[in-house]
Amino acid sequence: MRRVAAALAVGAGAFWLYCATLLPGFDFGDTGSFQTSVASPVIRARDAYPLYFELGRAFIWLTGTDPARALNLASAAQGASACVLAVLVATELSGSLFAAVAAGVLLAGSYTFWSQAIIAEVYSLHIAFVAGTLLLLLRWQRHPTTARAATFFAVYALGFGNHLSMILLAPAYVVFLLSASPRGWRAMFAPRIVGLAALCACLGAAQYLWDFQSVLSAPQPARGLGDAFARFWFDVTKSDWRETMVLTVPPSMFADRLRMYWFDLRQQFGPVIPLIAAAGMILLFFRDFRRGALLALVYLASVLFAYSYNVGDTHVFYLPSHCVALAVAVAVAAVGRVTNPFGLTTAAAALVGCYGLVRVYQDYPALDRSHDTRPTSVMADLAAGLRDRRAVVLTDMQWQIENGRSYFANNVRPDLEYARMPDLLLYAPVIVGDNLALGREVVATTRARQELVEAYGPLVSTDLDDRTRAGTLPDLVRGLTRGTRYVLCVLKPVREFTLDGAEVDEAISLLSGGAAGRMPPGQYGVVVGQAGEPPTLMEAANDPFTRSLDVSGVPTRVRMESWLAADTIRRMGFGHVIAARQHTLIVERGVSFVAFDDAGRVLRSAYRGNIFEPQSRYLIRIAHGIVGP
Asked: Do 78 and 72 touch, CB atoms closer than 8 A?
């Protein structure tokens, strides 16, 4: 009971931490897609994640709140559950409750895990399943009964309903089951055991039956059961996407990926904890080679997959490799066994636990998204000035923004009609004409307007809608009062976005009173200072860095916390500006700018060349009518 109580205490602390820093609403990217889909009566096979969505719906019903916040809260609860299970696993591995609690604190406060536990994402639940199946295996080893084996099979199969990467754990689990069987490896192939495993696998796969139903009810029905299954498998496993992503990292990037993973480990735990974990892994092999092999294979499978996965958010696929926190508990517990006195283990565990809490204190401002309403602001600006049920918005924006737009359209401004230009381009003049005849405005985003003009030439014309005019970057910084504190970050943009170098240079010149005019070369660049005066800091580099400085009496910390060679998606941002312990700016690729007061509060902020850049809006005109107020 002591270990359960201690684990629950760690989980309760983690849940409080995640709720305090929880994203308050919807986000762009996959998060926005999840938040939109969870409220839909039909989940497409392409969306998959049936267990995740069912739990999300339960949270909507329990909390009675909007889908975005309910799903964010579900991630917090799932992340806290993962911490509880991690403490129990660490206790099994180390034999020390104090060491296990310290490991749980390390995991709860690790940078990436924390960031995924405060938004609608599948990864906190995935780590809960990783820890849960590890715990069941270890308890089966201590008392190998058929019932315990069946429980493990059932939970492992259930985990596939959340994320198919559970398959990466199979080699480690098979090796452990075969090597730890008390009656030899052949006993694991007894008909009863094989039958149980097969039954659990079928029940786990049954979670996807509703996805199969969505294939059968598609607008273009399948040609027979075989074709339906092929479509279902293609969508659920995202075969087209994975064929271009898995094992496709070019050899020229191998060395950079190694550097990225070392950066990732230090970002989660600092430079010393991974070394302690390595010692713990070795000690675990000496104590019980089966358990050592189990943890090592789980770790290696996760690292090698993420290392070879050419995707824009590689860092989240490294998450299962953060089981290094469990190995830390083994090393800490070994201190007492080697030196004998019990108090030394407690002291070592307290030291590691305090280190974890210090990191939580340091990272809290950077990971606090409780005031992050940027997606809502971008979408609200796009819809600004449009009257209820009297406007149609035609869009074709970057996919992450479109996912956020879907949530906004369904849950925030359902009074407006939205449509994607690629879906209606063939008959766009008819759509525009019909809506004009009904007295509606028809407006389009930049790329949607460009596609319309390119397709229909003189049949359509457009005017920039002044109600959404964002202004240039120099315009935004020109009106700052002399002495106003600011930070301007310039990170290499992704290919879908471009930066106007002349605008950036002009903005730097205006901010510095003409003392500086061009950012030094490098993928990460930052200018810090007071408006109208020479910069306090002006630096650029090709590797991430952290700088702490005093800006007119305000302690300011600039944290570049991404790996631009691989990261195109970072839900927690590509960096952070912390002023007076306030989360003053989330840094994105492209330009991120903030002016702030002596308490770190935002006076003015702006983004350019990224998904948070304001969306321009155009009034659509056609030959026989004008769209306008």
From this structure: no
H/E element holding 394? strand 391-395
- The C-alpha atoms of residue 282 and residue 302 are separated, in whole angstroms, by 19
What is the DSSP-derived secondary structure letter of residue 468? G
How far apart are the C-alpha atoms of 130 and 419, rounded to whole Å?
40
d(CA 563, CA 566): 6
With beta carbons less than 8 A apart as the criterion, state whether 526 and 488 touch.
Answer: yes
Residue ranges of domains in the chain: 2-367, 374-470, 473-608
Single pTM value for the model? 0.93
**Sign (positive/negative) of CA torsion 127, 128, 134, 138?**
positive
Question: What contacts 390, CB < 8 A, 6 or more positions away?
Answer: 439, 440, 441
By three-state DSSP, how is residue 496 classified? coil
Inter-CA distances, 154 with 54, 285, 512, Å: 17, 28, 63
Q: φ, ψ for residue 594 (rounded to 5)?
A: -145, 140
Is the four-CA dihedral 45, 46, 51, 55 of positive or negative sign?
negative
List, run by run, the mean pLDDT of 10-residue segments along the chain (629 residues). 92 97 96 90 71 93 94 97 97 94 96 97 96 97 93 95 89 94 88 92 84 67 69 67 68 86 94 94 93 95 88 88 92 73 77 96 97 95 89 94 94 92 91 87 93 89 82 88 96 90 92 88 95 95 96 96 92 96 97 96 94 92 55
Are 171 and 190 a contacting pair, CB within 8 Å? no
Name the token pair of 301: 């499978």
